[in-house]
Design brief:
The complex is a heterodimer of chains A (528) and B (620).
Chain A (H helix, E strand, L loop, with lengths): L1 H16 L7 H25 L8 E9 L4 E7 L4 H16 L8 H20 L3 H10 L1 H11 L5 H29 L17 H18 L8 H8 L2 H26 L4 H24 L4 H22 L2 H32 L18 H14 L6 H14 L3 H25 L16 H19 L2 H4 L3 H10 L4 H7 L10 H10 L5 H4 L3
Antiparallel strand pairs in A: 1-2
Helix pairs in contact in A: 1-2, 1-4, 2-3, 2-4, 3-4, 3-10, 3-13, 4-5, 4-6, 4-10, 5-7, 6-7, 7-8, 7-9, 8-10, 9-10, 9-12, 10-12, 10-13, 11-12, 11-16, 12-13, 12-15, 12-16, 13-14, 13-15, 13-17, 14-16, 14-17, 15-16, 15-17
Chain B lengths: L1 H6 L3 H13 L13 H25 L5 E10 L2 E9 L1 H24 L6 H20 L3 H19 L6 H32 L4 H10 L4 H18 L7 H5 L5 H26 L3 H24 L3 H21 L3 H29 L15 H14 L6 H16 L1 H26 L15 H23 L8 H26 L12 H8 L4 H47 L6 H19 L1 H11 L2
Antiparallel strand pairs in B: 1-2
Helix pairs in contact in B: 2-3, 2-5, 3-4, 3-5, 4-5, 4-11, 4-14, 4-18, 5-6, 5-11, 6-7, 6-11, 7-9, 8-11, 9-11, 9-12, 11-13, 11-14, 12-13, 12-17, 12-20, 13-14, 13-17, 14-15, 14-16, 14-18, 15-17, 15-18, 16-17, 16-19, 17-19
Classes of the chains: A mainly alpha (528), B mainly alpha (620).
Chain lengths: 528, 620
Amino acid sequence: MLSVLIWVPVLGAVIIGFWPDLMSASRARFLALAFASSLIVLTVVLLSQFDLNHAGMQFSELIPWIDTLGLSYSLGVDGLSLPLLALTAILTWIAIYSSGESVARPRLYYALILLVNAGVIGGFVAQNLLLFLMFYEVELIPFYLLIAIWGGTSKRGDAAMKFLIYTAVSGILILAAFLGLTWLSGSSTFEYKSIITAGLPLITQLILLTMLLVGFGIKIPLVPLHTWLPDAYVEASPPVAILLGGILAKLGTYGLIRFGLGLFPETWALVAPGLAILGAISAVYGALAAIAQKDIKRMVAYSSIGHMGYVLLGAAAATEISLIGAVAQMVAHGLILAILFHLVGVIETKVGTRELDVLNGLMSPIRGLPLTSALLVLGGMASAGIPGMAGFVAEILVLQGSYSVFPLPTLVCVVCTGLTAVYFIILLNRTCFGKLDNSKAYYTRVKWSEQVPALVLAAVIFFLGIQPTWLVRWSETTVAAIVATVQVNSQQFFTLIPQPLLPSREKGRKRKKSDSYSPLPIWERGWG
Amino acid sequence: MAHFLVQTIWLVPCYALIGAILSIAWVPGIIRRTGPRPSAYLSSLMTLLAFLHGLVALWASWNQPPQQLLFHWLSVANLELSFPVEISSVTIGATVLVTGINLLAQIYAIGYMEMDWGWARFYALLALFEAGMCALVLCNSLFFSYVILEILTLGTYLLVGLWFSQSLVVTGARDAFLTKRVGDLLLLMGVLALYPIAGTWNFTELAQWASSANVDPTLMALVGLALLAGPMGKCAQFPLHLWLDEAMEGPIPSTILRNSVVVATGAWVLIKLQPILALSPVVMAMIVFVGAVTAVGASLIAIAQIDVKRALSYSVSAYMGLVFIAVGTGHSDSALLLVLTHAVAISLLVMSIGAIVWNNITQDVTQMGGLWSRRPISGLAFLVGAAGLLAFPPLGSFWALLKLADGLWESRSWLVGVLVLVNALTAFSLSRVFCLIFGNQTKQMTVRSPEVHWPMILPMMVSLGFTLHLPLVLKSLSLLPEWTAGNKGVGIVLICSTIVGCSTASIIYLGGMVHKPVQLVWKPLQDFFAYDLYTPELYRLTIVFGVGLVSGIIAFVDRYLVDGLVKLVGNTFIVGGQRLRYSNSGQSQFYALTILCGIGVLGMMLGWPFLSHLSLSYAP
């Protein structure tokens, strides 16, 4: 099943890429869409077959490959990766659909997009560290080409190179960490399950974990490792930016939770406070930098840095709710970023500029882009965490889950949702509101077919916001299992919480409460 | 049947929501053949349905014990989020008030927005507000109250920004959104912080918990202040009052709704939160302080406004300040009564001035005058609205103010002084507006001013009738305070303050003794009030400037320092590579030597264990 998910896009890439005749752009797009649609169908089947009560890996596949290296073709999916698989399937479809009818060199373009898709899916399902790394690295070249060939301005080459170098460094760090991890822990293979860090000295664990954190931190990206992001996102064409921000960055956050938290449950507590602060800093930094931008695409790119801060906070807190929230935030952010990038792309093609100072009054019903503007308002507000949309659910879970562990960074993140609103208001006020200059407003109409991706995404965002169960149900069991393994130094925990919240005579009641709901993390429950 | 309607009271917000969704079909570009008007009829019909439903349910639920319904929303890990619907006569009564006023506002808008094209959007947003407010009053959970308030904040942004091509509207919408959002986010902080302490978000359970809770006073004060910020933002209290004034850039029909019931959402949440806030005396003192400052400050500002809508909006802030005082001193009943009488009266006032503004083009009271003979109906509506808002027996607010003053008299008599002062100032302000618009000679802008058409007059008359009958309605529901000997003195003082306020304004603005336009002796003081205590400037100089500066610095750092460092490293490698390029001589002997050396070093390294072993054995 999982192999099919990986190899169908590869097959598609091969067919489209090596099509004997010249293929018209629309036919290549149609073929690619067919493959992407079949992926969505497969994912739906996967979702329906998934056992929600099983914490471990499902649909596992294991084919020995190179035993001497410890490399095997080992796949599996659990609650952590399943939502991301679904996200990947949707966003790939959206990216291909929104690519437009007239892409230059269509065969290469669609082949590369499908390859990227295969690689990301592989990354999410790989259960062997080396296999994961292979999928992780396989992304680089297609993305490099996608940015460098189909990018926007003359700076696209630089941006692509920057992306390549950064991500390669990230890969090297992760490789080093994986090698060290496997060899030092005395494991004979790189199988995820067989690696146990418990016996390692603390300092070794810390070094390895730090390498992993920096490696994945580049991919996520975290401040100050983020400088590849604005350039890459802005230079990439909108569909590629959707893939970059919506899917690829999620490999980083996924890796952080899967390998950072999953493999170092004991050491996580040591780095968690730092990570939480880093998350808060990322959120503040991304939001404030976005406020100062003059280019709407760059603004959206910086907003992405800010939103990744919440994921980091949720992962650092490592309570059940915050981790579920972190997974939900990955999905919600992917969807919201995709709708924003798509709409920005539409505005750029129709109006011909992305400059805030030039854009004006696009909400105007006759000569503006009213539906696009309305959807942009929706996307911006979803990103700012207005309830009723997916972003809110994710943020509230992250914030509520993290508050009891890291109150201060959580409150800083709440402030950041306010700052998010500030820059989206700036964006919307300048772009959609205001007076349209009638002498210049001769825009080509936005066809309904061009609105389809945004409408689909808006529907999904609304659906997940109103029925959030569909967003969080997948990861509950798995996250509970992960959290159960995390050991946190409880003394440190007590210094972080304002102490006696309930008096001693309330003790019995408190204990009763904590059965039904414990805002305290799982390690605290053992105490009571 | 009636019982069924009580049980299904949760349908009331759904009607409005359906109306909102259906209205969207008439935005430009979807349904063209009919024009946008059907959206208004449809939306009003749904509101009528909601109103009738609520009315029957109110009748059926009177004197019945409250019930709870639970709608499941999300359960994740151990966090259960359910939407508790509280069915009691108070909550149903509140939905009736909301739907009733919204019904009037929607009919009014059919007349007022006659020439507008944005009907579908407007009616969809009005319906969204109605849905949100009905859901808010029915909802018995702090978390969902926050959720609804946040959605309404977005609604405010879109509703104020209805005429988005005007620059003042755009800034008004922005300020309204951001100010309310600040309140919402502080509320969110409080909501997040409250859960670990109290273990619930259900208002009823919170009240139970608060009755026996023993919490750290500092923590509770902080949580309480955060929780307070939400209602402060919604009720337009200092220092978050700016948005209500800016929101006056929106169309007047939405102002009817906003000034009467939307601001009251904050008061509603505050009343619900009162048991928790009462855990901290600091917070209670803060509520009274904020309320008193706003009440007095806003009524003074209202007097200095020349824009008639703004003059009214500051009076709204002032009355919400009184509600804050009531809640802060533990008189939630008086607070609810005042919210009700205020909502009814202010909606009538706004309708009246809307009718004036509609065909006089201007909102500037100094340019108007002499309309009493031409616009008797609007004038009458204004008078009744003003009487309903002030302590003017036997109309509604008199009883509410009397009840509050009576309650305050024992414990904090200085607050009665605030009450009397605010009443006098508001009386002065409303009389001033009335005299300037309806009194004196006609001016250029008011020469041609016939009475408006029926869609605006009809809701105005209904509202007028209801304002006049409100005391009877309250009496039949036995909600009026007793007129006893104990509170007679307070009542007379209140009445006197009304008379003093009205007569002073009449003497100044109708009589010929004072030169027009009226100037205070000291001009800076007048400007101080006219420009809203310079709050917009204050914000611009502090918060807006600060955020702008910091974000500019961060963007600079990001572009030139962080990214610059990366570029520096990159360039170093490039330059280094180019330099090294020239160190290659191209002679094969040199390459051979290099290879030899390399192999030698490699051999040494690989053979080191062996070599070291050798050296060890030869050592002795």
